Amino acid sequence: MAEATSTINALASLTPPSNLRSWQSAPHPYLPLVATASSDKIVRIYSLTTFTQQSQITGGHKRSVRAVAWKPGLPSDPDSVLATGSFDATAGIWKGENRKRRIGGAALSRFRQSRDDGGNDLVDDTVDEEELEPLDSGDEDDYAYAVQLTGHDSEIKSLTWSPHGTFLASCSRDKSVWIWETLPDEEDNLETVAVLQEHEGDVKCVAWHPSDEGCLVSGSYDDSVRIWREDIEGEWTCVGLGDGHKGTVWCVAWEPISHLERMQRLADSAGRSEDESGAHEAAGINPADDDKPQSGPRIMSCSDDLTIRLWRRRPKPPRKQTEAPKIPSIIRSTSDEEDWFEEQQLPKVHERPIYAISWSEMTGRVVSCASDGKIVVYEETKRTLPVSSSAAPLSSDSDVAMYQVNGNHDVTEGVTEASGRDALQTEWHVRAILDAAHGVFEVNHVCWSRRHDGTKRHRDEEVIVSTGDDGEVNIWTVD
User: Fold this and answer.
1) Angle at the Cα of 322 (from 320 to 326), degrees rounded to 5?
2) Which helix (H) or strand (E) holds 113?
3) I need a labelling partner for 138 at 20 to 30 A (CA). Which of 86, 333, 391, 416 fits?
4) Whole-model pTM?
C-alpha cells in the first residue's frame, strides 16, 4: 500500500475521562460542546474550547448509556435538546439552557441572514469566537430530564434526529426501529408514529437522510442495510435493501449534500461535451437539474467483514401523468420500491471489525475506526479513464479504490459511459492512518467536528473526535 499523504496528530484528551468504556460522542450542532455516552450511566458534556468537562447528566438511566444525539437547532434557541439511548431499553430527552454560550448582536444577524439566503447548514460559518460569550462552569443541574421514551424490549443501540428535528429514530437489540414525532404544541412530548420490524437481527445503527425528513437508513446484525421512507399517508415502509455485507453492519452514514454538490462542480469544471454530460445524468449525480431523474446522496456502511461499502440508488424515469385517477389500494405499489446497488468499496486498511464511519460535511473526507485500534481517513477524487481501455478493476486492498471499468457494467453502476469516450469516475484514497489511537483499547466511535480552541489555524478547520474502551475521548488534527 502506498504511503498516506497526511498524518493524524493528537491535539487533546478531554478531562476527566470515564472510568469505564465510552461508547460514542456527538458534537453539538452550533455550540463548542461534545456529549459522550459511557458505560458508567453518565453523559459528560465537554467544552471543545478548553477540553474540560462542563456538565454531566446522571440519574436518567439504570444501565449503560449507549448513544447520544443533539437535536438540530439554531443559536437563537433558548434550549439545547439532547437524546440519550440506554441498555435499559429507554431513551431520554434532556433540555439545557443555552445561556452558557449564546450568540448576539451582529453575529446572530448574520446567521439569520444566511438562513434567509437559503443556507442549509445549521452551523453559522460566519461567527467568530470573540463574538461568543464565555462558558460558565457547569454542574449536574444544567440539563433537565424532560421525557422518557419507552417501548423497546431490549438495549437501545443508536438514535438520531431528522434534519429539522421533527422526528427521532431509535434502534435496538429487539430487531426494531422506532420513530417518534415531536408534537407541534408540546415540545416536551413525543409520540410513536412507526415501529419498523423487517430486520432479522439486532439493529445496530440508524441515520437520517441529510435533507429528507421522510427517509432514513438502518444497519443490522443480519448483515443488511435497509432504507425506509414515509409515504403520503404517513406510513413508514422499507423501500430499499443493501445486501452484500458478510457480517454485522455497525454503522451507516449518508453522503452530505455539500459533498454531492462538490463532486458535481468538479465534474462541471472538466468542461465536458453535451454527450459526456449526459453520462453524468445517467449516473444521477447532477443535483442542479430537476428535470432529470436523480439518485440523490449515497449511503456508506461499515461492517464486521472489514469492508466499507458505498451504495447508490438507481434513478427511476419520471412517472407519466395519467388522466384518470387511480383507485386507492391498501397494497403498496412496487413502484415505491428503490433499487440500491453497491457502487464500490473503500480501500481495505482495517484488520478487525469496523465500528464507525463519519462523512465530513466540510471536506467530504471519511474517517473510520475499528476494533484494531486504527483511525483511517479517506478522500474521494474525480478520475477520468478511457472506457475503450477496458482497464482491469483495482482491488479494494489497494490504497486506491475506484469504479470498475468493463463492458459488463450498466452505466449507472459506477461507470458512466459516453459513447465510447472518457467515463467520469471517482476513486477513494487513503489519506492518513493512525495506529493504537487509544493504546491497546478498541476505538468504538469517531466523528468529525469543527475545531473551536484558540489555536485553530483557519475558520473551517475540523478535528476528529474518537471514543474508546479506555473511557477516553481524544481530539485529533489531520495535517
Assistant:
1) 120
2) helix 105-116
3) 86
4) 0.81
Q: Is the peptide bond before 16 cis (omega within 30 degrees of 0)?
A: yes
The cell for 92 is 431520554
Nearest-angstrom CA–CA distance, 431 and 322: 51
Task: Name 157's Cβ contacts closer than 8 Å, sequence gap at least 6.
Answer: 66, 67, 85, 171, 172, 173, 202, 203, 204, 205
Per DSSP, the three-state class of 455 is: coil
What is the secondary structure of 303-316 as a DSSP string?
A: ETTS-EEEEEEPPP
State how far the Cα of 392 lies from the Cα of 411, in Å rounded to an integer: 17
The CA distance from 222 to 447, in Å, is 25
The gap from C-alpha 417 to its chain's centroid, in whole angstroms, comes to 30
The dihedrals phi and psi of 173, each to the nearest 5 degrees, come to: -65, -15
Burial label, 44 (beta-carbon count in 10 A; 0-12, 13-18, 19+): buried
Distance from C-alpha of 12 to C-alpha of 471, rounded to nearest angstrom: 14
285: how many CB neighbours lie within 10 A of its CB?
23
Is the CB of residue 205 less than 8 Å from the CB of residue 171? yes
Coil, strand or helix at 399: coil
Tell me the H-state helices in 125-283. 257-269, 274-283
Residue 454 DSSP code? T
The count of residues in the chain is 479
Highest mean pLDDT among 137-146, 365-374, 416-425: 365-374
Q: 414-438 pLDDT, tens per residue?
A: 333 333 333 347 899 999 999 999 9
Spatial separation of the C-alpha atoms in residues 15 and 13, rounded to whole Å: 6
Separation CA 280–CA 316 (nearest Å)? 15
The H or E element that residue 106 is part of is helix 105-116
414: which 3 cell numbers? 459506477
> What 3-state class would DSSP assign to 322?
coil
SS3 (DSSP) at 328? coil
The C-alpha angle 249, 399, 381, rounded to 5 degrees, equals: 85
Cβ(280)–Cβ(424) below 8 Å = yes
374-386 mean pLDDT: 83
Distance from C-alpha of 61 to C-alpha of 400, rounded to nearest angstrom:
44
